[in-house]
Amino acid sequence: MPHSNSNHSLRFGIITDIHFSTESETAAAKASAAELRACIEYWQGHDVDFLLQLGDLINGSDTYKREELRQVSAIFKPFPATIRHVIGNHCLALPRRELMEALGLQSAYYTFTIQGFRFMVLDGMDVSVLSTPETEEDRQLLAHFRAHPELHDYCGAIGSRQKTWLQKGLEEAEHFGEKVIIICHFPLLAETTDQRHGLLWNHREIAELLASSPAVKACLSGHYHYGGYAQLNGLHVVVLPAFVNRSAHPRFTCGTVELAGERMVIRNQLDETIYDLPLRH
Prior knowledge:
Purple Acid Phosphatase, chain A, domain 2, 6-stranded mixed beta sheet, 6 helices, 12 strands
């Protein structure tokens, strides 16, 4: 059962870039399912308050995308706590509305608060080749990035309405003395990814906005399969390694994040500490 006592630390499970595929060889597909179930057992054994799934839940095969989602959802169904989903680029192989309904999302970007922490989940595919721009500013933004294919058409940007929502949320958090944790599928700093994977299209603008708010303490992302870390004005920017590439980095298949006092501790499935970071003041 998840925590209910507000006096202890906040602990949540975390995993990213599962890329669940039914096209793999049967043995490989069964191994992936078994390791996901092992992650669920690990989280249950560590009394997590919720689970954060950072995007690219499915591989997004043209033929098998719905079956991928059906199977991976069935694996996670027994998990007893809330699962907070992030939309990744591979996820949008499915129509956005269909995907959001399956994941129980009213909006692709949203916020929730627990024990004085405000989690703000961003939709990095808000402006992308897989989304319809909502404003003239967004249409111009999409046209700009379409003209630069080296920035990858599988990445995306935070749109104008989402930026307004983000700014308002940060101001509210500052007013109420909340600590903000930013969640985004895409990396927000170039130092935490590589050219092949790419990052959020308008990462500079968003990273500067986040770093300028004293309420923001950390950013957690996926997408870059090998993981990365950097700081921006004392703000921790962590990219976690992908489940799908776990053989390349066996020290992280899944893990937990613990927020206690003024620190953030990230541990792997072996209970080894990967990061022990002081939250900026």
